[in-house]
Amino acid sequence: MRAWEVAVPGPVGGGPLQLVERAEPLPGPHQVGVRVSACGVCRTDLHVAEGDLPVHRPRVVPGHEVVGVVETLGPGASRFAPGDRVGVAWLAGTCGACRFCRRGDENLCRRATFTGWDHDGGYAEVTVVDERYAYRIPDGLSDEQAAPLLCAGIIGYRSLRRADLPPGGRLGIYGFGGSAHLTAQVAIRQGAEVHVLTRSADARRLARELGAASVGPAEAAAPVPLDAAILFAPSGDLVPGALASLERGGVLVIAGIHLSDVPPLEYQRHLFYEREVRSVTANTRRDGEEFLTLALRLGVVATTVPYPLESADRALDDLAHDRLTGAAVLRVATP
Ligand SMILES: [Zn+2]
Ligand SMILES: [Zn+2]
Hints:
alpha/beta, six-stranded parallel β-sheet, 9 helices, 17 strands, 26% helix, globular, binds zinc ion
């Protein structure tokens, strides 16, 4: 099969990824083999390719927004049948026994493993997944529509929950890529007033189309005091401004897995009056199930930019340089 590997992590312009021919992986115990139809391109793939995240598996195949069809069953696998359409997301495994797993916070498990970092992912024609961590893809979502929901969508949903936005509250969204444009739709359809702050003019246009109450540049002050804000842009420089835009008691959620350094904060200006900063670490399977159901119910529509599998390096380069609006999706197999 064809697969992309992270050969030598480094700046995406230097070509860290290589397209190679590999043997198709076989499912192990409780795993299923999945013929990949589509795979979303997430900023985390960029962090894996560029080495912002340390190497967990040499020559890993990136990609953790995978939609495909179950083809083979490993020993003991019984949850799916060949032909079922499934999604493979970032969370690939947890220990199931630690204090976090036992209290329902499996996203905090220290022994968690991740697709496209610890395990080979979906920038390939076939992948394998532990069936307990796969999602059934609802009918009514195309492969290309479903792919970005599996990380961008789920992480955005968890970020929105972490924001504790009051009903009808004012939400600021900093950065407006794959995850943000899905999260904004959920928030707006649930009654929030959403203000989008992003440097890309195309993204500002999309935000308006999706119903944002206002749009502006990322460094600008929000036009109204915000009950909560979510920082999707991986830039720590935006943290003080976002905190200063919060209403008393407001919450700033940092959605990304990687953030550049945060400049010094002034307690009175940025944190006093019970403003809070919260991070987001991966997601639980429950977040994923809830979000997929909600996305279908609320009619969340991903703006996708398709690329053929052989152009995965170009998709990552476009993502790195803000040349795409919405979510890039690799078309791996033609439906
Ligand atoms: Zn655990
Ligand atoms: Zn992701």
